[in-house]
Design goal:
Strand order of the largest sheet: 7-8-12-15-14
Helix content: 25-40%
Shape: globular
Largest sheet: 5 strands, mixed
Strand content: 15-25%
Distance between the termini: 35 Å
CATH class of the domain at 376-462: Mainly Beta
CATH architecture of the domain at 376-462: Sandwich
Structural class: alpha+beta
């Protein structure tokens, strides 16, 4: 968050999803069409939001899916959920079953755009079992193999196809998914080095891992794991990832920014790996969730100057900053919601692109993915994978991090219980107790195995939350580097301090001739992040409002 809460509360993912409704309900025109671009003006003019070709179907399908997921997580319906459903169905050609190029720009009818639509259709069918969504998804998946992929986005359809295969047992897409999965891995090369656009590459891999698990291809799964570890090495421990991972000869310059779409895909890749033999990755997910993902959500848009011009067919100036609260960063730095690192030249009117709202639905999907898998019950076993609040039919889990090293599990049903040991403590420093007597805790594969427990039992886990510092740097090789001192309390970053030279301007211009532009990698800039000094306190936080997990729509708990 960029602003301190008025009341110290436990960390609950529902808190961030509830904030997202402000963005989902307001950053759209009167017809419900989302705005894609948000512009900030250096001269002090009013911020501007406008439409472009990606508003529909790309952004609309992402936000429709996000609205469905958010409803399951909060019990609240988004204003435009039904409008977006009609919009997406109306963009599909009844003859071909694919996006109709006469209703959307031809560049927005690629396999990638169809795949985004398929993902939202699959989500809608899993939610409602409405045959309209099933029929649309079946027709689309039958036609996708004939759509020529855009080179950059080749493979993004795999996750959408595999989600539908698992939901419906409709198998025509499985062979197509396998072909694309092998092509994706061939593109990375035998050395399993990740390079290129993070969102695209990670989205591809989130589909490949789904396919590999479904067909039980151990060799393919091992390659995906190797690529995941390489991706992890290109970011930071607190979850900041560069929008692009440079390859040899690539045209990146001084600008680097963290795109929320990439964080969504990182979580979507790490979660099935963590659920299938790599529990050590839960720490990666929790640190990203508590830190960069949480900070990438817009909590303060006051730096985007409000305007009073009347809306046009394509543009709006009305209260853009307040309408963006709950939206998501497209190019954050470790200290600011906007790094000015997009590489896009200013518009003729002098506006710089501050947000791209493909991230608008992506951040919500990332929240949902982490929330669904933070704690879950499978075959009578409750696994507490992340030390965050979670309400299940079988148990209520509460955690006081970062204020205190305390986790409680109030059991409503009898089950076996296992709790992951936090990465920052040794198992010997953790104490486990119960209101029903002594607890024998055996440590296996990074978990405290607590065995069968009783309904009505309250288990308490306590441990130290040390405060530590580390120094890190981000930046493209051969270009400006930005240095920070990171203060941790347990798994939470409580302070982010720029150190070294504070660059006021950088050479930007991804893929084109560079130009000089302001940059926000130091103390000064819009939307200061990690203002969390209050988290250093040793206090008992108030319990945050939770919503019970109904067990539906977990597309990342794969076997």
């Amino acid at each position: 968050m960029q602003t301190n809460p008025s009341l110290t509360q436990t960390f609950a993912v529902e808190t961030y999803m509830r904030r997202a409704y402000n963005y989902l309900d307001n950053m759209a025109d009167e017809s419900g069409r989302p705005y894609f671009n948000i512009y900030w003006f250096q001269g002090g003019e009013s911020a501007q939001a406008n439409h472009n070709d990606d508003d529909a179907p790309d952004v609309t399908s992402r936000q429709w899916q996000a609205a469905i997921l958010a409803r399951h997580m909060t019990g609240q319906q988004c204003r435009y959920e039904n409008v977006w459903a009609k919009t997406i169905l109306g963009r599909i050609d009844p003859k071909t079953g694919l996006l109709d190029p006469s209703l959307s720009h031809p560049n927005c009818c690629s396999d990638g755009h169809n795949a985004m639509v398929l993902y939202s259709l699959a989500t809608a069918w899993a939610d409602s079992k409405d045959p309209v969504y099933r029929d649309a998804a079946c027709r689309m998946i039958a036609q996708l193999p004939g759509v020529k992929p855009k080179t950059m986005w080749q493979g993004v359809s795999i996750k959408s196809v595999m989600t539908w295969v698992r939901l419906s047992n409709d198998m025509p897409g499985l062979e197509y998914a396998g072909t694309m999965a092998r092509d994706v891995l061939d593109g990375f090369g035998a050395a399993n080095h990740f390079g290129g656009h993070m969102h695209q590459g990670l989205r591809n891999l989130s589909g490949v891992v789904d396919y590999a698990l479904y067909v039980k291809d151990a060799a393919m799964l091992a390659r995906v794991d190797a690529l995941y570890r390489d991706v992890r090495s290109k970011g930071t421990r607190f979850g900041w990832l560069p929008e692009n991972a440079p390859r040899a000869g690539s045209p990146e310059r001084d600008q680097v920014g963290c795109e929320t779409c990439a964080l969504m895909d990182f979580v979507a890749l790490a979660t099935p790996l963590a659920n299938n033999g790599h529990p050590e990755y839960w720490g990666d997910i929790e640190r990203m969730l508590r830190n960069q993902l949480a900070e990438n959500q817009v909590a303060d848009g006051s730096w985007l100057k409000p305007g009073d011009k009347p809306d046009t067919q394509l543009d709006t100036w009305r209260d853009v900053g307040s309408r963006m609260v709950g939206g998501w960063a497209g190019w954050s730095s470790p200290t600011h919601i906007w790094s000015n690192g997009s590489g896009s030249e200013p518009t003729e009117a002098g506006g710089f692109k501050a947000f791209m709202n493909c991230c608008g639905g992506s951040g919500d999907t990332a929240l949902f993915t982490a929330w669904k898998n933070a704690s879950l019950v499978e075959n009578g076993v409750l696994s507490v994978n992340m030390h965050i609040d979670k309400l299940l039919p079988q148990a209520e889990i509460r955690c006081h991090q970062p204020y205190q090293g305390y986790l409680s599990i109030a059991l409503k049903e009898a089950c076996k219980v296992r709790v992951r040991v936090p990465d920052f403590v040794e198992a010997r420093d953790v104490k486990v107790s119960s209101n029903k007597g002594g607890v024998k805790a055996a440590v296996e594969n990074g978990y405290f195995e607590l065995g069968p427990r009783q309904a009505g039992e309250k288990i308490e886990v306590t441990y130290p939350v040390p405060v530590k510092e580390e120094e890190i740097a981000i930046g493209n090789p051969g270009h400006k580097q930005y240095h920070y001192r990171v203060t941790w309390k347990g798994d939470t970053v409580v302070r982010m301090t720029p150190i070294g030279e504070q660059y006021k301007t950088i050479h930007s211009g991804w893929g084109k001739d560079p130009f000089e532009t302001e940059a926000y990698y130091g103390e000064e800039g819009p939307g200061r992040l990690y203002q969390r000094e209050y988290m250093l306190s040793d206090v008992v936080p108030q319990p945050s409002p939770l919503c019970v997990d109904d067990g539906k729509l977990n597309f990342w708990m794969l076997r």
